[in-house]
Amino acid sequence: MNLKKYAFVFIAVVILFVQSCKSDKKIEEPNQQPNIVFIIADDVSWNDLGAYGHPNVRTPHLDKMAKDGMIFNQAFLTTSSCSPSRTSIISGLYPHNTDAEQLSWPLPDYKKTFVQELKNAGYWTGLAGKYHMGDPVRDDFDQLLEMQWLDAPIGLDRRLKGDGSGCDEWIKLLQDRPKDKPFFTWLASFDAHRPFYEGISNQPYDLDETIIPPYMPETEASKKDFALYYEEITRMDDYVGKVIAELEAQGVADNTIVLFVSDNGRAFPRDKTTLYDGGIRTPWIIKWPAKIKPGSVNDNLVSSVDIAPTFMKLAGLEPLSDFDGVDFSSMLADTNHETRKDVYAEDHFHDFEDYTRAVRTKKYKYIKNYYPDLPNTPSADIIRDRTWKSMKEERDNGTLSKAQMWCFEMPRPEEELYDVEKDPYELQNLALNAEYDYVLNDMRMRLKRMRETTKDYLPTERTPDDFVRETGYPTKYRIRPRPSKAVYMKAREEGRVLMNPDFVDTTPKE
């Protein structure tokens, strides 16, 4: 009898223990570290998505992501150049503090990244698609499925393997991940980077569906380029939909943070490589079903330099003290909460030399051109294409408006001030308008304070252009990549003036 009684008690205790364990597990599940999926487009402007009001560009998956999550209307990048933007994001530093501020300079191995910190904290980390951050960062990823190029000359237009989107292996990366760890993935598209190719879509855009900003002429060439640009956005959007579907199929969507941004604005004149909103304002959509209320709209300022500290905070880690950015995670729960009063952006060498700085509030934009003798030349791949060629023809015929001439203007004004609420295309420079002297002085002080706080300084030497500004062709062709900042600095310490080495002439012959 006693044995039966003890057996009954023992069984009861075991049942209670198992139930308590199950109960504890249920309590812990909501506090598990979230998975993080970072999706970064290439050369896509903020207002070229349906979610941001474009009436013709087809982006159903990003539009749904915005409805299911939170859309930011005042999101900005630290620069409008491909690799400096990416190294700024991953390091949480302004480009001038990354030591990788010029195009194709690698992020040095002594710079920490939030991906490295996530990996050290137990996250599995992976990257698929466009990389463009330098060899030292590769070790931050447990798996790296980098897009592959078809053989073609470096520095000239090349084709990608696969469908050309750079997104081919996004789903493979998500499927390959270990299932017993929280994960972080960096999914990088090559869409909508130039060159644009015809025939990538079975639903091409009509030329009449294109919307050309007023600082570009509405020529047939520009409409053709915009139509093909829209096609690449739609293709990239389709891959975003596949990612969301895969997360749902794996049963991890609820506790996975998905953030979508672009590395810089569209690859058109006066957009990419400039500090106008067409270059630095970015789409910014975040979805996290477990925490973010569907249909949320955030009108507060946020900068791409804030991504690193925020991802670390959401993962339960303390952001690095070296970060220049600020944690914006509180804004996900309260759209009225403000984490910054202004954003700072910078422009460095991208095919051509430049040094420009900007500070922007919700209402005003101030731009300081430190090299006003240089024109606001677009990137070389833009110059080689038809939109720019049509602009040159219009220029030579004297039919461009004042705003459309700005990329050719020499010298540029040293200062530019815009009321971006009244003048969203930044067409009316108010810097010489006495009625705005108070605003101008306030924005000057904001810029000065940011430069001093972040130790931003004007270089003592200029970097020589890699291409001819009028044609976009390299006067000299690089056999190996441009030297890094460290190589330039060492040469300067030794009293040498270092030009880009190992060139052979490839100027097209008449």
Could you walk me through the main structural features you see in this protein, from its secondary elements to its overall organization?
The structure is a single chain. By secondary structure, the chain is α/β, with parallel strands linked by helices. The chain folds into 2 domains: 33-333, Alkaline Phosphatase, subunit A, CATH 3.40.720; 356-478, Arylsulfatase, C-terminal domain (2-Layer Sandwich). It contains 14 helices and 14 strands. It has helices at residues 2-28, 60-68, 82-91, 95-98, 114-120, 170-176, 220-249, 277-280, 307-314, 330-333, 380-383, 386-396, 437-453, 485-493, and strands at 35-41, 70-76, 124-129, 143-146, 183-188, 256-262, 285-287, 296-303, 343-347, 356-360, 364-369, 415-419, 476-478, 503-505. Strands 4-3-5-1-6-7-2-8 form an 8-stranded mixed β-sheet, with helices on both faces. Strands 9-10-11-12 form a 4-stranded antiparallel β-sheet, with helices on one face. The protein has a two-stranded antiparallel sheet with strand order 13-14. A hairpin with a 3-residue loop joins strand 10 (356-360) and strand 11 (364-369). Helix 5 packs parallel to helix 9 and helix 6 packs parallel to helix 7 (220-249). The longest helix is centred in the middle third of the chain and has 30 residues, at 220-249. It is globular. It starts with a helix and ends in a 5-residue tail after the last strand.
